[in-house]
Prior knowledge:
Elements: H1 14-33, H2 41-67, H3 75-84, H4 87-92
Helix pairs in contact: 1-2
Amino acid sequence: MLPPELPPLPALTRAEAEFVDAYLEVVDLLGRINPARTTHTYGALRAAQALVGRAAALKDALTLMHIRGENEVYTQTLTEALRVLDGERRTNRLTMPPVSTS
């Protein structure tokens, strides 16, 4: 049985798509660095090193949007894109894990 087909991404400008992609890459890296969730310093170190480049890509995407006159962030559209790209699960790694009751 095939998994259910994901809904299509909403229509995004190239800069908006780069903004969403770079944001999720930053989120993924921060999730790997999160001291409440990481288990090895080397993996966290590598993620921290990569974070610099991905943060610059995020800044570049937002700069491009601004230069092109895309002055508004359409949160409803971008939220839909984040959901299609599994943003809820990915951002969950930034939070504290549930308290263990054992």
